[in-house]
Write a structure and sequence with these properties.
Blueprint: H1 2-66, H2 88-108, H3 110-114, H4 116-151, H5 181-184, H6 192-237, E1 239-243, E2 249-254, H7 255-264, E3 272-275, E4 282-283
Antiparallel strand pairs: 1-2, 1-3, 3-4
Helix pairs in contact: 1-2, 1-4, 1-6
Length: 304
């Protein structure tokens, strides 16, 4: 019986430890991927900052060029996209188109190309373009790190389940990358999904623990019943010796006969008795209690 109780206790603690390990693993996995996502978002934000600076410079350059053109043509010298809402590739492509138009005008007007303000703005725009490209490389490096972690074990086992989707590399010059919505939604939630999953996992661990405890109790009760039955059966066939008042050994007699002597007062609770096969004498009062009478036709239920 002690072995059964020990087994139940071991299984119970294994379930608890396994549940705690899985919970910690889920938290670690989520935090790792979440950190990678934040790196991607930070890199994208840095690109947006540099690009908006370039847009501002290009519009200023357009104002300088507008002085050399008629009123109708100046419309083409402004970036018309709303810099606050436009997707990064779209904004970059339109900025490049406007800049190319201004540079074409400068070729027709030497005075414009020689203008000091034009030269300073053109230099600043070139530096801004280099900064945008440098930040794009850093952004794609962050995306690569995120995608690699997402596709690697053990993160690949739960990345999709936790709402982490693959991220596309950012290409500013291609039409395909003009839709940057996927870039902004590589993470579908902000922890709610994880909390929900941990809640479900915790509930399942609790249910499993309750089920295990219930099964363990049932097994223990059946084991105890079987042990009592075995004790009763052994007592029915066991032979005993006892010492009379003069310390003379008597027997062998059955347990029923020994109990009958006690009932008549022939022996007392302090009478020394020795079960056949035992190595030491013991007091009658120390003998294991007899199991209650039971239906001899009843059968023990099998242990689970």
């Amino acid at each position: 019986m002690n072995a059964i109780v020990g087994l139940i206790s071991t299984i119970f603690w294994l379930v608890i430890v396994l549940g705690a390990f899985l919970a910690l693993l889920a938290v670690w996995g989520y935090n790792t991927l979440r950190h990678a996502v934040e790196n991607v978002k930070e890199a994208q934000s840095n690109i947006d900052i540099s690009l908006r600076k370039k847009v501002s410079l290009v519009n200023q350059l357009g104002d300088v060029a507008a002085k050399y053109m008629d009123r109708e043509s100046t419309v083409m010298l402004k970036v018309s996209q709303d810099v606050a809402t436009a997707a990064t590739p779209q904004l970059y492509q339109q900025t490049g188109t406007v800049l190319s138009t201004i540079q074409g005008i400068a070729q027709k007007f030497p005075d414009l190309k020689a203008n000091e303000q034009y030269t300073k703005l053109a230099t600043a725009i070139a530096e801004s373009e280099a900064d945008v490209q440098n930040r794009r490389l850093k952004c794609n490096a962050a995306i690569k790190d995120y995608n690699t972690k997402r596709a690697s074990l053990p993160h690949a086992l739960w990345a999709g389940f936790l709402g982490f989707r693959p991220a596309r590399y950012l290409e500013l010059d291609t039409v395909e990358s003009a839709d940057a919505s996927v870039q902004k939604q590589i993470l579908s939630d902000d922890g709610d999904r994880l909390n929900e999953l941990l809640g479900v996992a915790g509930a399942r661990v609790i249910d499993a623990t309750k089920t295990l405890a219930s099964q363990g109790k049932l097994i223990a009760e059946k084991a105890a019943s079987r042990v009592q039955t075995e004790i009763a059966a052994r007592s029915a066939v066991a032979q005993y010796h006892y010492l009379d008042v003069e310390k003379a050994p008597k027997g062998p007699i059955s347990r029923d006969q020994l109990d009958a002597l006690f009932a008549t007062g022939a022996i007392t609770a302090d009478t020394d008795v020795l079960e056949a096969g035992a190595k030491a004498w013991t007091k009658y009062a120390s003998l294991p209690p007899r199991a209650p009478d039971r239906d001899p036709t009843a059968q023990d239920a099998p242990l689970l």
